[in-house]
Write a structure and sequence with these properties.
The chain has 197 residues and is of the alpha+beta class. It contains 4 helices and 4 strands; from the N terminus they run αβββαβαα. The protein has a domain of 101 residues.
Length: 197
């Protein structure tokens, strides 16, 4: 091999090596050492060292677990659970609620156009049995988007469906809870809404 080509090859290799080191070392450098502190009194536990939090971590992480209803205060005032003379309760205990895809805290990307399955978990106070109710919650434009994206001339919706004009979690919860309580109060009807598959 020609010595000039070897020299050019070696120089190019060193240049790429230096450029790679320069680029990999150009990130932000953060000083993780703690500032000097006053001496601690004897017997005191050491202070907790908090991990460094980058400003960019405030961005939503799609892999992070979504917030469920059990993690939030319930936005509705519900009647007290009471038992009638026949030993039947007026409503179940609502344990949790969540959407299949939508995060309860952030809501859908477009509040006027969404379509997702909503789940409400309730427990029968008398039997302690849990039931998971499923509803399709959508806006008219959300349904139209599903039809357009799936190239469907018609859309058959099986099961319970609630159409809302736009994202309003309180309205959605109120509608679902009232429907469950109505069917719960009528003996034999609460099984028709359950979608515990």
């Amino acid at each position: 091999m020609d010595p000039i080509k070897l020299i050019i090859f070696g120089a190019a290799f060193l240049l790429l090596l230096l450029l790679g080191r320069k680029l990999s070392g150009s990130g932000d450098v953060h000083d993780l050492t703690a500032p000097p502190q006053d001496p601690m009194p004897s017997g005191s536990p050491p202070p907790a060292i908090l991990p460094y939090k980058d400003e960019e971590e405030d961005e939503p992480n799609p892999d992070a677990p979504r917030v469920a209803g059990a993690d939030l205060p319930f936005p509705l005032t519900l009647p007290e659970i009471k038992c009638d003379a026949n030993g039947r309760y007026n409503r179940p205990e609502f344990l949790n609620y969540y959407f299949e895809k939508i995060d309860l805290k952030t809501g859908p990307d477009d509040p006027a156009s969404f379509c997702d399955d909503f789940y409400m978990v309730a427990r029968d106070v008398g039997s302690d049995d849990e039931t998971e109710y499923r509803y399709l919650i959508a806006t008219p434009t959300g349904l139209q988007s599903v039809m357009t994206s799936e190239h469907r001339p018609a859309l058959y919706i099986e099961g319970q469906t609630i159409i809302v004009p736009r994202w309003d979690l309180t309205l959605i919860l109120d509608t679902v809870v009232k429907r469950i309580m109505k069917d719960y109060a009528e003996p034999g009807n609460n099984e028709t809404l359950a979608a515990a598959e």
